[in-house]
Amino acid sequence: MAEHLELLAEMPMVGRMSTQERLKHAQKRRAQQVKMWAQAEKEAHGKKGRREQPWKEVSGLGPRKQVLFPPSVALLEAAARNDLEEVRQFLSSGVSPNLANEDGLTALHQCCIDDFQEMAQQLLEAGADVNARDSEGWTPLHAAATCGHLHLVELLISRDADLLAVNTDGNMPYDLCEDEQTLDCLETAMANRGITQDSIEEARAVPELCMLNDLQSLLHAGANLSDPLDHGATLLHIAAANGFSEVAALLLEQGASLSAKDQDGWEPLHAAAYWGQVHLVELLVAHGADLNGKSLVDETPLDVCGDEEVRAKLLELKHKQDALLRAQGRQRSLLRRRTSSAGSRGKVVRRVSLTHRTNLYRKEHAQEAIVWQQSPLTSPEPLEDEDRQTDAELRLQPPELSPAESGAPEGLARDKAHHTLAELKRQRAAAKLHRPAPEGPETFEPGLPVDTETSQPDCGFRTPGDPPLLKLTAPSEEAPVEKRPCCLLM
User: Is the pTM of this model over 0.70?
Assistant: First the structure.
């Protein structure tokens, strides 16, 4: 047959051919392909014959068997076919009836699943273990009770099968039985043996107690509790899968790793979720297990969970954990903002405070400047009498000051406060009488700041320098000055 490059080179030529020519060309290529295949088959058979000839000449025997099965597989296969004669030959040849496959399943297990009563009787008479356990702790009685095979259950009970055997899921044979007659048989047998609820609970706690004892021995020996065991699983994986709360709590107390992974990349939380151990799920998450941890195939604990109750619990815990993380993130961002602005926050407050105080001083002195600007001739008579009365009272009755308050600046401040009050009274009276404010060379609105550099009030006459009451500084900082009459108000 033509090579691939040759076929590619022919493509332009084939495209220019007519339909009949293309058919003839295809038939020619197919004939070449069949011829080359026949030749290759002939060469292959010739090489095979040359390899087998020396072996036949030396051994003088026919072809020998190339596939051999171990006795356990052969016995299980014969029991699954319910071949009593072949199983009898195996047993008589010395094959043990307790041989099991890689999952721990024995021939007696298989008979109890398939309801082969005669085969089970033959295996038991040959010495089969009636309480043999597979890799998940199932006994033949578990299998017979689950399938509802009443006669096999009666047979196993007559052979002293353990009625309190607990599998890895924590179930006894009667827990798995749904057939009414079979369940009644199991409960009757339990009552006849004197089994009570306390003994049932004790039997359920035996596996965890055994693991606790083993764990105490490891702690005394100083072993690392996070070392991987079979399939890379740690002790915490085993406790999580089996629902051993006390063992898991002890392991976590001793610092067992929550992020340890087995060969499949599963963490202990994966095992608890897969096996439906809701209490272990809560315990592991409470100690910080990662709900978003992924296995080698990117599966989270929620992905491998098949139990609806456990799935609902995982979703609830995930929502709570996400909300907590968001709240912590907001707190951290707020803390960072506070930390970044802490250096300038105090300065900003102090600048605002100083500015505010300066504005207050400006307003007060602006109002005082208005008092000095107004003339008594333009003021209404009632207001003039009131102001003169107030001034006369001040002259006749000077304020009594304590020694601490007898300083000149504070006395001046009180004097300014008096004139400010008088001005406010004058403004209220003018508003009531609907009279316009007195006009002067330059009018100031009360409450507005006065610029000392650009504006100065026009008082009937001036003294050298700025009047003391027009200086826009704090009163406490002014030096005591001698009062001079201004604008005929004093």
Answer: no
